[in-house]
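User: Structure with MU-OXO-diiron, tokens only please.
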Amino acid sequence: MLSKTMEEALNRQVNRELYSSYLYLAMSAWFESINFKGSAGWMMVQSNEERAHAMKIYDYIIARQGKVALDTIEAPKAKWTSCGKVFEEVYVHEQKVTGMIHALVDLAIKEKDHATFEMLQWFVKEQVEEESNASQIIEKIKIVGDVPGHLFCLDHELGKRK
Ligand code: FEO
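Assistant:
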């Protein structure tokens, strides 16, 4: 069974993953508003993945006889000034999430909760990929220039994400 402290911390992470899903959905909507269909699709896949992250922890809380406690999800912002700025925000956000996951790992170690420690290892690896994906896109935008006309091919490439 989960300790109260661990249960609360995991529930907080469910909320943060759902916020991430909401944030990327807002980014998808913004890309739609400027007709960048490929980037909108990339963000939609990202948003769906974040919901899956939340559900992974949700299912784990239940499997450990814990109680799921859903909280209010903060509203994300709705406007960005350029494509590059959106992906820079994704990168900063993912670095923040990595910090949250590492703090959960630290807590699992402190509590000697081996099962939670093991479950969180999936997230530790996932965060390496999440940060790397965002940083690679930022690098590509730097090469072509953060100008809608120049980003046409990149938008097409991002649209291939499944
Ligand atoms: Fe659920 Fe993008 O980390």
